[in-house]
């Protein structure tokens, strides 16, 4: 059954599909990705065993065209698709600047992806089967503990920090403290040697250091590696450790190709976003 135009509940047009193709690599944790579509933007979420959750938020300003059909209770439009199938569709064209049109008409229909190339008259269309999904932890909607430590760094400095430590061990320990050593990463290597990286709070690699209490926790290095996959896109990174041990890595991603005529001021919950529309990739990792 083909959807009618009046059946469409979500439609969007995105230029420069290269970004989406590459950033989805950072979400390859589980098989399915959950879409939550609202008037303000789209959130893509994956979760593994309630141990790690990654979500990519793309504000509506990033899209050349953006439509969400209003509903009575203003609830988001939610559905899930297979992540491998989605990334496979995005690789069907090698034209990084092609136009991607996304159409979703509700639970009875698949999600449609249509590609229009910039250098030819060739168009490609694919359909992805949608499915229901189990509820996620939705960290981005929960109230986080008040007590926490937070470090704000540029994306390049954050990438350099984790490149200097061996991530092959099973666990990495993170220490944030108002006293020395301030910010310390530790990992026990395969030969039982301990590798550490220490950063002073006065280091020029740190934009903001807000650590009123000492918090130390250990995390699986495989979960940390997920968060490092897209640091080449990162403008700013906020690393937050809550007193419960929950780790949040919030990566701000700027977009040089957004429609400037629709720009607005967009802020993340931790106020790390500059003026203009920015995507945010968040990781929540349990100890």
From TrEMBL:
GO terms for biological process: DNA damage checkpoint signaling; DNA repair. The keyword DNA repair applies. One of its GO terms (cellular component) is checkpoint clamp complex. Its main location: nucleus. It is found in: Nucleus. Gene3D superfamilies: 3.70.10.10. The keyword Acetylation does not apply. It comes from the Eukaryota. Keywords: DNA damage, DNA repair, Nucleus. Pfam families: Rad1. Coiled coil: none annotated. InterPro entries: DNA_clamp_sf (IPR046938), Rad1_Rec1_Rad17 (IPR003021). Belongs to the rad1 family. This is Putative checkpoint 9-1-1 complex rad1 component. It comes from Phlebotomus kandelakii.
């Amino acid at each position: 059954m083909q959807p009618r135009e009046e059946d469409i509940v979500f439609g969007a047009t995105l230029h420069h599909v290269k970004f989406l193709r590459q950033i989805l690599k950072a979400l390859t944790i589980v098989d399915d990705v959950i879409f939550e579509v609202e008037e303000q933007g789209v959130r893509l979420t994956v979760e593994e065993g309630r141990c790690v959750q990654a979500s990519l938020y793309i504000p509506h300003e990033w899209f050349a065209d953006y439509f969400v059909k209003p509903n009575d209770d203003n609830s988001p439009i939610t559905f899930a698709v297979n992540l491998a199938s989605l990334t496979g569709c995005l690789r069907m064209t090698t034209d990084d600047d092609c136009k991607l049109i996304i159409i979703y008409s509700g639970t009875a229909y698949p999600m449609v992806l249509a590609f229009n190339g910039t250098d030819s008259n060739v168009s490609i269309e694919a359909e992805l089967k949608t499915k229901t999904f189990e509820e996620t932890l939705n960290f981005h909607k929960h109230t986080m503990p008040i007590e926490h430590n937070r470090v704000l760094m540029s994306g390049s400095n954050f990438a350099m920090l984790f490149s200097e430590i061996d991530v092959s061990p099973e666990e990495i320990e993170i220490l944030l403290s108002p006293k020395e050593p301030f910010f310390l990463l530790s990992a026990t290597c395969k030969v039982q040697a301990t590798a550490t990286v220490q950063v002073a709070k006065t280091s020029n690699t740190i934009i903001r250091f807000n650590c009123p209490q000492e918090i130390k926790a250990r995390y699986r290095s495989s979960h940390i590696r997920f968060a490092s996959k897209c640091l080449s896109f990162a403008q700013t990174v906020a690393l937050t450790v809550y007193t419960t041990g929950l780790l949040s890595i919030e990566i701000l991603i700027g977009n040089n190709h957004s429609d400037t005529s629709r720009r607005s001021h967009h802020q993340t919950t931790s106020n790390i976003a500059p003026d203009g529309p920015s995507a945010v990739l968040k990781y929540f990792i349990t100890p």
